Amino acid sequence: MSLECPICERKFQVRSDYNSHYNRCKLNNESSYKAIQEGYSVYENARTINNLIAEVERLKNVITKIQKNYKPPKIKNINILEYLNKNIERNINYGEWENNIEITYKKLKLLLSEGFREGITKILKEELDGNVPLIAFNKKKLIYIYDGGKWIEYTNKRLESTLYSMLANILDCWDEHEKLICGISYKDIDFEATRNQSSAIYLKHRHILYGDGKVDEHAEKIYDKLYTFLKTSINSIIVTENYI
Fold this sequence. Notes:
9 helices, alpha/beta, 4-stranded mixed β-sheet, elongated, two-stranded antiparallel ribbon, 2 domains
């Protein structure tokens, strides 16, 4: 079989003759040699690109097969209260938590400066740090409380009851500090006197502490604020289930 020089196309029968000629021909025809080399490089690049295209097509087919055969995990609907009662516990009941809310002079001043609704909301938020018996999720506008050893839905009426319980403590704290706040105690105020600044201040503060006589209305708004503060993603406790 003859050997052909790729530069000048001369043919040889003996490999040693071909090798000797090729080395001389390469030097004598440098431009032709470079053109051949460049052509070979283009050929190699083209072959690499074709191989990559073939590999991409192969991977597309593999992905298509995987997608066709993929079966997502079945996600079942569950009742959130049932789930909470089976899987989530608290060390303290809501009633105990509620009774532990302390009204101090500082909190009393907060109520008088912020108003009943905002003041109570801030006081309750301070009590919601840690493993508390209240929980809420962003899918439903509901708060759940752990009471009597089980989770139940938290209602506006239950919150209203809590507010009245707090109100009793607020008034006890007021009785202790009314003179410090108003500059005079209740028994020393002459409510019959006209332009009595002390009585005006006293009555204004008492009016605020009583929630303007609208504790039920405040309870609805405070519930919304507490829900916003407490809500978290349901995925924090449930991964493969939807809740109803």
